[in-house]
Every structure is written in C-alpha cells, then in structure tokens.
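Researcher: Structure prediction, please.
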Amino acid sequence: MPGATAAGDIEILAVDDGRGGGDVPRAGGDDDGASGGRGASRILSRRYFTGMGLGIVAILMFFMALVSAYIVRKGTGMDWMPVALPPVLFINTAILLASSLTLELARRRLGLGDRSGFQTYWQVTTGLGLLFLAGQLIAWRQLVAAGAYFSSNPASSFFYTFTATHGVHLLGGIVALVVVAARSFDRAKVTRATAAELTSVYWHFMDGLWVFLLALLYLGR
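Model: Predicted structure follows.
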C-alpha cells in the first residue's frame, strides 16, 4: 500500500541519517593495544611520534653543543688533564645495551597478547635502567676518591657534565617505563602498544647517545 511504503521509507531514513542505529566508535585506546576509532587513533599516534621526534632533536642539539664545547676547550687550553675512566663505565654500558634487548622482548610479548611476559621484561628493563644509574654514581665516587672533582680541571668538568645530563634524561625514560607499566589505558587517547613504542624510541636513543658519549670521553682524552 502507498501509505505503508512511505512509512517504511521514513523509518529507513531515520536509521541512515547517522543519529540512529549502531554505536559510535571510541577514539581512545584500551588496555590490550586494540583501538576503537582507528582513524582518530592513527592521527593521535602520529602527533605523539612527531612530538617525540622533535624532543629527540632538541636533546641531540643540546648534547652536540656540549660536544662542540668539549672539542674546542680541549684544543685551546694548556690546563687539560685527561680523566682516567673508571672500568665500571664499561659494565654500565653493557647493562644499558641489555636493557634495550629486554625492552624489545617486552614489546614483542605485548604484541602477542602476553601481558604477563610483557610486564616481566618491562620490569627487568626498568631495573636495568636503575642499575645503570647506580653504576654511574659508583663511577663518580671512584673519581672523587681518586681526587678528580668537578672543578679539578676542564676534562673532569666535562665528564661530570656529560654523565649527569645523560643520567637526568635517562631518568625521564625510567619514569616513562613505570607509567606505561602501571597505567590503565582503558580511557587513554593512545594504546599501551603505542605508548610502549614511544618509550622504546626514546630509550634506544638514550642508549645510543651514551655509547657515543663514552666513545668521545675514552677516545678524545
């Protein structure tokens, strides 16, 4: 009948106009790495990665300025006395490199949906980071015991400056590790997997930066 057909058309339009029927997907992340609104989540992820990239560039520029000052000061002064690097620094380097490995193992477990394995490797990474910082403090104590203070000569001043600034930035990475492990991502704008990837980018950068600084301090004495 004409009347029934018109009523049916009205009902179909009411469903299809976007106000009725179906649930609106969430743009936020959830705890296991899945995403409700995939398009919005990708845009947010790109923004976070862009911000991380800009932050890394800023940190790199800061350290390159210190490196330039190190090279110039070493070549223009007669008061430069090379610092004997404590052997514990090389042990610390091995610890930090191991933390990058456990971090990637943690991300792999998360991608496989193994939350227990993820937490285990993630906590090991956090512990290795703390162990690295403790080792740096031990290196400082050994230098102080040998009579090499911050103000002893330009070489020792740069050593403490390099290790302290790197340690502070690495401590920021440890804070990020703790947050990713402890936070609930049910209502977060990004997933736990995205947060873990962002943290890993920063952590690997800090690892590589330390290897470069150690090579500079060892070879550029």
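Model: The chain has a mean pLDDT of 84.
Researcher: Thanks, that helps.
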